[in-house]
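User: I'm curious whether this sequence folds into something compact or stays loose and floppy. Could you predict its structure so I can see for myself?
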Amino acid sequence: MTRFRPNLVVDGAPAWAEDGWAGRRLRVGSTVLRAAGPCDRCVVTTTDQETGVRGKEPLRTLARHRTIGQKLLFGLHMVPDGPGEVRVGDPVAVED
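Assistant: Here's the prediction. I'll summarize afterward.
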């Protein structure tokens, strides 16, 4: 997980649920976030964040399962619609 450097991880959603969230709004705690679009992954994810050692994963696996339009997609870019607070354990709801 550290290789992807996420700001927010959603637990309990089905695999690839974020594919249906692009362009929609999600409420997380008191914050509304707009899902601006999918996140294509870069070579930084191939570096172990603890040791600095580089390899071919996870991009090799993503290439087999998540290549869309010549990009390796995993996650979403999210933009807050306004101020709010997000805490560990907050429920996540798709609003529109």
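Summary: Helices lie at 59-65. The mean pLDDT is 92.
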